[in-house]
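May I ask for whichever protein you like with its backbone structure tokens?
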Amino acid sequence: MAEEWGTQARTATGDSAPAPLADDDLAVNLEVDTDDTDSAIGDMTSLPSTASVRSSVYETVQENGRTYHRYKEGKYMLPNDDVEQDRLDLQHQLCLLTLDGRLHLAPIGTKVHNVLDIGTGTGIWAIDFATQHPSAHVTGTDLSPIQPNFVPPNCHFEVDDAEDEWMFSRKFDFIHGRTLFSCFKDPAAVIQSAYDALAPGGYLEFLDALLPMQCVDSSMDGTALGKWTPMCVEGAKNLGKDWTCTAKYKQYMKDAGFLDVQEVRYQWPSNTWPKARHQKVLGMWFHQDLLDGINGMSMAVLTRGLGMTPEDVELFLVDVRKDIKDRSIHAFVPMYVVYGRKPE
């Protein structure tokens, strides 16, 4: 069995983080909290600020009140404006909480020289990795040039499409990608390109969400929230993309030639409905991530893919937002970390 399921780890809150998930039960370890007070996590009236200083966004396209990348216009269906950039930086903190403060799970060792982060977004992962590994050179690529001007000297960014032919002049020791399920028409081909670009013994790791949303019970049945992600998946399919591809990463990596492929599963609750404190904290952060990102995730895929009007989308999202805030709806998004090693 290739899955790796980890051990209990101490979290910043002082609790033991739940072990990653095994087998096919995506809802295992999630227990509903029947106490409406959320006393387990204390004051939740505000989240830490994730605002950062970045270079101004340029070369953008306006659509339905949001801005999108101009390079390869229309290929990526989420916006790249300030609202989305702030959300991506918040999501970075959520990923760190999920992985107990780690930037990755792959056992890459200490002798890492060249690192690639595809779909780097604001570049925050690449910057953090470069800061923690000053002897490594980190390259971040994205369709949008929204990364900051001032970065560590061992970090740089390029505008690039990971579905084009990879033209790097060097091999990489570690290639990383995060929340890429909405990016590619052929994720298997991207994984094959990563395999070819790795040095022998190098690792590829993806951290990604699996859509549609799941629920531990029947509380999501018949709700707007229950309809939302299936509609997004359908719209994306009409546009040639499989937003359920995360569950296939493990096999794609094996098919590409990776060895020791591991799949580690977590959960992001829709709000603070879980009983366990660590899961409640994850729910608090993901709740904000959802509310900040729901328009960006939905607008293009539902208007372009399902033919909805922007007004219809906004009206529908009013009810989805209400459901996201409803602690009696016990929804979550399965999260996967999948990594593998190129043979020596």
User: Anything to note?
Assistant: The longest strand covers residues 198-209. Helices lie at 82-98, 124-132, 187-197, 224-238, 249-256, 277-306, 310-325. The longest helix spans residues 277-306.
